[in-house]
Structure prediction request, 271 residues.
Amino acid sequence: MYNIYEAPFLRELCDTTANMYRLGWDERNGGNISYRLKQEEVAPYLDLSRVLRTLPLDFDAGELAGELFLVTGTTKYFKNVAKCPQNNTGILRVAEGGHTVEILWGYEDGSRPTSELPTHLMNHIVRLRADPDHRVVLHCHPANTVAMTFVHELDDRAFTLTLWRMMTECLVVFPEGVGVLPWMVCGNTEIGAASAEKLRDRRVVIWAAHGIFGAGRDMDEAFGLVETVEKAAEIYNLIGTRPILQSITDAELLRLADAFHLVPRAGYLQA
Ligand code: 13P
Ligand code: ZN
Prediction:
């Protein structure tokens, strides 16, 4: 067996959590990440037949049965993940039947996966239906995105159009737009199902007065989505209530989509 502390997937999670903490997106235990791992990349580092403990799921994750995930722990601080991944993260497998998860590594101080595990797994289910190469769900609390949810209407189309207009790259990075949920109690299957509904045909969902989820084929894609939304929200907040003298028009956004061979979400832009 190779040393799991040198596994690329674990190094990548440590680097990402440290970076997110550095950016101020993950105060205290704020934020969580789940990273779908391939059996062949984990097997050299871990005996996959050795289940340390099992935990119940209160929804049906049967579509993910057998899938392996590296998941940050509940109440754990992102700033501490890199120096002690074995206490602050763990590797789990969704068990046959989809109503339990098997802990295979980590959570060594007796801890558990993130309280947002229902949202993460439900998001993985819908993203995998949309894209078999999907792997990462990442959640955090970036201040500008959260601030924007207090002063902007929480409509998917209106929110997306504002972000697209704040910065040229936005349409290129998320042509399918973002989904927005009103304030809800977090850490349960209800917000998980509402989030998954938004992510069926998108990779970003924003929770009002809470934070953001990004999904992607790899850590860079999920991180880059959040980074781009947060930058656009920062510009929105910098503008504040000052009058906008010029912006990107719908016609210009359509020309941009054309130039980058992208299809903006249908019905959002007016020709
Ligand atoms: P966890 O500590 O359970 O991951 O929760 C943090 C969080 O961001 C809740 O939404
Ligand atoms: Zn949160």
Remarks:
- The longest strand covers residues 100-106.
- The domain at 1-114 is CATH 3.40.225.10 (L-fuculose-1-phosphate Aldolase).
